[in-house]
Structure formats: structure tokens, C-alpha cells
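[User] Once you have settled down, look closely at the record that follows, and write a paragraph about the fold.
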Amino acid sequence: MDFSFLDQLWLARIPLLKGLGVSVSISLLSIVVGTGLGVFVGLALVYGFRPVKWIVRGYTDFIRGTPVLVLVLASYYVLSTIGIDLGPFQAGVLALAVFCSSHVGELVRGALQSIPKGQTEAAKAIGLTFAQTFTYVLGPQALRQALPAWVNTAAEMVKASTLLSIIGVSELLLRTQELISRTFMSLEFYFFAGFLYFVINYGIERFGRYVERKTAVPS
């Protein structure tokens, strides 16, 4: 890493920071929306009526079996053919959130099914509604079990956000490629971009550890 790279890095600080901000925004939105949808997907898989289970099961299997790049292209190009015009940013968030929801749904399903049924029956016996049972009995236990795998899913969403450059989203990777085309410093800028992605994922991992400590059962 020589001074010429440092000079170019300083000159390119604004585009890189903007690209980093877009990557963080896309990742955060897709994780939050995808997690929210995934909770409902998991609940439907466990407690839904049989036709609902079939539909949701088909949704999760189809989405999980589809490459993220195909979902991104479909959200941007296919939806426009049926009158739903989304910008690159919105289409990217939609694709990643849908992909995230299918994985989170499976995590929630597995976590809920691992909880003994006697706890649900006990909650019914003391008069708790389903919403209260999930909030106070099932949800906290499912959270503790699904959290480690959720952290991995969130990290995958950050990495998948790099695919949005193909539809013109000015995220970190696209900004980096634009700088490389001008400076021809591919190794240096790709290494620096990789470092920034590592920082984002490390932050997610630390957040997961923090929530894990807060939700741990005292021994």
C-alpha cells in the first residue's frame, strides 16, 4: 500500500463513503424487513392451517432454491413488465428481503418446533392468548435458539448486497469498480472494500453476541 494509493483513497473518500452508506442502508433494510416477514413465515409453517402451510412451504422452497441474482433481476426487470416500477434501490431491497424472509422463516420454524408442546398447553391452561403465548413463552426461547443462525443470515445479506451493482445501485462495490477503472489499482481498492465489508459483518456479529448475552437464561 504505497502513498499513491493513499492519495487516491483520500481523493475518493466521498464516493466510497456514499457507497458504504448505501450498502449499509440496503443491508439494514433487507435484514429488518426480511426478519419481520420471516417471523410470520415461520409462524405460518408451524401454526397455520394446512392450505396456508402448503402455500408458505412452496414459497420458502422456491425462494431458497432461487439464486439471489435471479431474484434481484426479477425484482427490477420482471416486475416492471406487470406495471410495478421499482427503482434499483427499492428492487434490491425487495429481492434481498424476500430471500432473507425465506431463511429466517425456516429458522423460526425449527426453533418453535424444538420447544416442548407442554409449554404451549400450559400457557393455554392459564388463559394466555396465542399472541401472549408467543410473546412471553415461545418467542424468547425461539430467539435464543435461532440467534446464531440469524447472525449468519444477516451476514449473507451484506455479502449479497454486492450483487445490486448489476442493476445500477451505487453501493460500495460499484463505487470501488468505478475507482479501479480510473486508477487501475484493483488489488488495493478491492482489498480495502473487503475490509469495509468485514467491518460491517463484524458489527453484526458483535450485535448478535450482545443480544445473546441479554437473552441468556441466568444459570
Summary: The mean pLDDT is 90. The two ends are 49 Å apart (CA to CA).
